[in-house]
Amino acid sequence: MAQRGQKRRAEETEEQRNRRLAVMAQRGQERRAEETDEQR
């Protein structure tokens, strides 16, 4: 039982990490778009 709880918790943290990476990638794309606007 305890092991199953730990596994579920690990999966949740992995999902959170993936979500955070996706958000960071999105912010990076937005920042890049702003830079290209300034360069134009």
UniProtKB/TrEMBL annotation:
Q: Per its UniProt record, what InterPro entries does this chain match?
A: STPR (IPR048998)
The highest taxon in the source lineage is Eukaryota
Q: Name one Pfam family in it.
A: STPRs
Annotated region described as Disordered, given as residue ranges: 1-40
* UniProt feature, compositional bias: Basic and acidic residues: 8-18, 28-40
**UniProt domain STPR: residue ranges:** 1-40
Annotated membrane-spanning segments are none
Protein name as annotated: STPR domain-containing protein
Organism per entry: Araneus ventricosus
